[in-house]
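hi! just following up on the protien thing from before. the input was this:
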Amino acid sequence: MTLAFSSVAMAQNDIDAVHSNAVVIAVSGAAITGAASMYNPYRSGYREGGVHTASGERYDSSAWAAAIKTNLRKEFGGVRYGARPKYALVEGAGKKAIIKINDVGPLTPGRIIDFNERTMRYFDPSLRRGVIDDVRVTPLSGDDWTPGPVA
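and the predicted 3d structure came back as:
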């Protein structure tokens, strides 16, 4: 039933947003709070990562995606090569978005998630902050979410 709600509420494009009541219904785990940063293997000066994510997908700076801290992999149902990406509700800087968790990494201490460039630009449009504190990441059940802003 949760999947039916999530499918109905999905965004049609990047301007439309997912309805928050569908997200609340689909929450599957406890929220994790910590800091978020950004990585982009194609831009010098940003945290390095491989061009392929842990799920096997290529890094895409234009997707709504992120890497979760390696020791949080279990909370997100495992993010492994060849497995379907997982999804999370991410809240921070007064905004909410559904983000595809398709990578893991040994992040800087205190950080729980590394956003790709598009996701970081949503939470920090100027990219000047570098780190967003008090980000709340909540795993979502199902694997048919369309990432993007939540209304």
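Residues 2-8 form the longest helix (7 residues).
The longest strand covers residues 95-105.
cheers
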